[in-house]
Specification:
The chain contains 13 helices and 14 strands. It is α/β, with parallel strands linked by helices. The protein has a seven-stranded mixed beta sheet with strand order 4-10-9-8-7-5-6, sandwiched between helices. Strands 1-2-3-12 form a four-stranded mixed beta sheet, with helices on one face. A three-stranded antiparallel beta sheet has the order 11-14-13, covered by helices on one side. It binds pyridoxal-5'-phosphate.
Amino acid sequence: MQSNKIDSYINKKLKEISKKNQLRKISDVHRKPKNNITFKSNNIISFSCNDYLGLSLNKIVINAAKSATNKFGVGAGASRLITGNNYLYSLLETKIKNLKKTAACCVFGSGFLANIGVISSLMNYKDLILLDELSHASTFLGAKLSGSSVIQFKHNDMKDLEEQLYKFRNKHDKCLILTEGVFSMDGDVSPQDKISVLKKKYSASFMLDDAHGLGVVGDGSGSNSLFRKKPDIDIYLGTLSKAVGSYGGFICGKKNLINFIINRCRSQIYTTGLPPAVLAASIKSLEIIKNNKNLIKKPLENAVLFSKIVGLKTPVSPIVPILIGDENKTLNFSKYLNRYGYMVGAIRPPTVPEGTSRLRVAFNSSHTKEQIKNLANLIKNKLKIYE
Ligand SMILES: Cc1ncc(COP(=O)(O)O)c(C=O)c1O
C-alpha cells in the first residue's frame, strides 16, 4: 500500500514552520468592554483588535442582534438565491450604498469571500492583475484562483506600477489594479488619486480593498474620502467585521457589476446567507458610524498621541506598526508587553514579508489616555535597549 503522502507533507511543513519560529496557536480570549481581555487566565489590555469603534460590544448593537434573532431565528437556512435573503439584507445594502454613494452594493459572507470570489469571477487566464505587494492574503488568493497573469508592484510605488502597465498591459485582455485603502499591517494609505489616473491611461479597472479604512479615516465613509478629488474606483470592497464590529463583507460599484456578482460569483452564490442577527448588528453599527462624527475620529487621535510619545512619525490611520525585523525578537517583545499587562500582536511571516516582523499596535475609540501613555512609555524604553 502507498504511504499516506498528505500526512508526511503535513508533518514536514509543521517542522519547517516551527524551525522558523512561525508556529501559531489559537488561544481562548474573552473580550470585555474598555479593551479588557482575559487571555491565558490573565486580565490584560488589548491593543490588538480591529473593533476600532468598540461596536462589537455596544449595547444598542447587541440589542439589535438579539431582536433579530428572536424574530427571525439563528441561521439564514439557505443561500441568498434560495430562501436565505432576509429583508435585512436589502436594508443593509441600501445603508452601505448611501454611505458609499454608489449605485449598487452586494453583501457577502465575509471580506475574504468577497475578495476571492469577485476577483476570480471577473478575471481569467487572458487577463492581467497588478497588485500591491503588501496586499492581503485574500487578494492574492483571488488573483491566483482567477488564472490571470499576476504581477506585484512595489508597495505604493506608482512609478513601478506604471512601468508594469507599460510593459505588460497590451499583452492581455482585461486588466485589474488591486490595492488596499488602509494597509492592514502598515497603516498607510494607498495613492488612490494616482491609481485612478493610471487606470484610465492604460484602460484598466481599479479595485480597492478598504477593510481597514471604513469608519475610521476621513469622513468615516472610507479611505477614498481622504482625497480632495474623488478617486475613480470601479470595485470597492469593505468589511463589516472591523470598524462595523459585526461580520460580513461587501462590494460596491455599478449596477451591472453587482448583477454579475449575483449571477456568477461562486463565493456569493454557493454559501449560506448571513445570520439575521449579524445583518441587524451591521445596520445598527452603520447608523452609529453615520451619526457620530466624534466617535470615528477617536481611534486615529489615540494613534497620534501614542506615536508622539514613542517618537514615531504621525500615523494616518489607527494602525501603528513598530518594525523589529527579527521574528524571535518580535515575539519576545510582544511577550514582554504581555507580562506588563498589554496585548500587542507580534506579526510575522507569512503575514508580512520575511525580515519585516513587527508589533502591530491597533487603536480604538475606547483606549484611555492612561492606557496609551503606559504602553507608549513601555515600548519607548524597550526600544532604547535595541538602539
Ligand atoms: C485588508 C483585508 N482585506 C480583507 C480582509 C478579510 O475581511 P474579513 O475579515 O471580513 O473576512 C481582511 C481581514 O483581515 C483584511 O485585513
